[in-house]
Amino acid sequence: MATIKTENMEHIRSEQLYAEACEIIPCGVSSSMRKNVKPLLFFERAEGPYYFDVDGNRYIDYTLAWGPLIAGSNHPFINKAVAEQLQRSYTLGAQHPLEVTLAKKLTGILPGVEQVAFSNTGSEAVQSAIRIARTYTGRNKIVKFEGHYHGWLNNVLVSYKPQPAQLGTPVASCGGQPAPEFEDTLVLPWNNLAAVKELLAARGHEIACVITEPVLANSGCCMPEEGYLQGIIDCCREHGVVSVFDEVITGFRLALGGAREYFGLRPDLSVYAKAIAGGFTMAALGGRKAVFDVIREGKTIHAGTYNGASVNLAAALATITVLSGDGCFTRLHAYGHALREHLQLAARKAGLLLVTAGTGSVFSMHFGLREEPRNYADTLAADAALFAKFRALMLHEGIHLLPDGRWYIGITHTDAELAFTRQAIDNTFAGLAGS
Ligand SMILES: Cc1ncc(COP(=O)(O)O)c(C=O)c1O
Asked: Most CB contacts within 10 A, which of 38, 181, 194, 211?
């Protein structure tokens, strides 16, 4: 492994570009989720698990572009599939044989998924799920959970990161979200089955769907308690409500068949994006044919210029082929486990309280907590400032992390990266203990 430049790591060119970007791009970033990343680095290329910034620094990347890069960057098999497809067509705005190939593949891999509809992003596919559920049930209300992220649109960006005083009531997460646009969104605390049962018993006749991340990856990687997700599915069935799992993060990550396979569950609909196409723009909504029938019957529509774009279909098929390799998910889980153990050991040695939460190749660090958080409210007690220090020191060690404590692992993280990262963790905790 070539040496990673960590001494006197400088970000001069990134700083210049950031200053220029701020003049002509709002906040200098293309997604507001990135604006709190400090320092704000510009990267010029990526290779396998490595990101290279414009100042010549190399990092082992554990952001995976917020999840999609499960096969790393510049993967030869995915490159070949995409390059070959590029010569045949980019996108056609018409049917392509790979749609059928990919749909067959997905219905084979994802337990209980009988049909799929392609979109481009998780946000769009979530909206399709909601519209289909509303048409299917003839009801308007939707139920989501505090701290869960289902894209940036007004009806779901509700109680995403509420302040402690805002817990318990649906609140807008940013400006430009007029109350009428989310008055049909009901919000509950997560991992509380009694709350779901009570709400559906009282108002089930008004509710089209309950949408949940199966692992609360967007707020601390909280794990579902035993029986909780099945309880949601059962309760939904009892009240004629559509159960929707937002598998944008867990899909093609917890297992090839995502949370459906990992937890052995069969919700009515599931949303996939991110890892499904290894970094290309692709999302899919999958689920029961009976629910999708509202489209066949002409009761509603699912649309998008780029839906089923041939290059993205090729990328998805290639990514899924790569992920279908022997032992792929066992290795991902083992790597995640090894990292978490090392982090906890290093924290103990440094006399710092730390828990990690999550499973396999996506987990979060929580400084200052004694127990794994069960839901968003629990994560509010974590020491975010200490994680920010940790992240800054890790960056200096050549490790690139997300700003919220979450780690993503991909198949190009190997023993060499693990060894390097362990050393970086040790150095960082030594720095934290001395600060
Ligand atoms: C669980 C979940 N759902 C939906 C989305 C929205 O997906 P996209 O950013 O592709 O629109 C995200 C994005 O992070 C997500 O994590």
From this structure: 211
Instruction: Please tell me the predicted confidence (pLDDT) of residue 7.
Output: 57
User: 3-state class of 88 per DSSP?
Assistant: helix
CA distance 317 to 311: 10
Start-end ranges of CATH 3.40.640.10 in the chain? 76-323
Q: What's the residue count for the chain?
A: 435
The 8-class DSSP code of residue 352 comes to: -
Nearest atom in ligand 1 to the alpha carbon of residue 124 is 11
Q: Which pLDDT value is given to residue 1?
A: 42
Q: Would you name the residues annotated as active-site residues?
A: 149, 246, 274
Task: Report whether 257 contacts 113 (CB < 8 A).
Answer: no
Ligand 1 pocket mutation pick from 30, 150, 155 by most atoms within 8 angstroms of CB? 150
Q: Could you tell me the strand order of the sheet in which 58-61 lies?
A: 43-47, 50-53, 58-61, 399-400
CA of 76 to the centre of ligand 1 (A): 26
In the chain, CATH 3.90.1150.10 sits at: 12-74+327-434
Q: What is the pLDDT of residues 69-101, one digit of tens each?
A: 999 999 999 999 999 999 999 999 999 999 999
CB of 123 sitting under 6 A from ligand 1:
yes
Residue 404 in contact with ligand 1 by CB distance below 6 A = no
Q: How confident is the model at residue 171 (pLDDT cuts 50, 70, 90)?
A: very high
pLDDT mean over 32-45: 94
pLDDT at position 434: 72
* In contact, 60 and 46? CB cutoff 8 Å: no
Say whether pLDDT at 397 is over 50.
Answer: yes
CATH number of the 76-323 domain? 3.40.640.10
For domain 12-74+327-434, the CATH class is: alpha beta
Q: Going by C-beta distance under 8 Å and a sequence separation of 6 or more, which residues neighbour residue 169?
A: 159, 187
Output the CA–CA distances (angstroms, integers) from residue 421 to 45, 100, 294, 351, 432, in the order listed: 21, 41, 50, 20, 16
335-370 burial, b if ≥16 CB within 10 A, otherwise e?
bbbebbebbeebbeebebebbbbbbbbbbbbbbebe
Confidence check: pLDDT of 198 > 60 = yes
Q: Do residues 394 and 211 lie in contact, with contact meaning Cβ atoms separated by under 8 Å? A: no
Pairing state of beta strands 399-400 and 58-61? parallel
Residue 103 phi, psi dihedral angles, 5° rounding? -60, -40
Confirm or reject: Cβ of 229 under 6 Å from ligand 1: no
CB atoms within 10 A of CB 286: 28
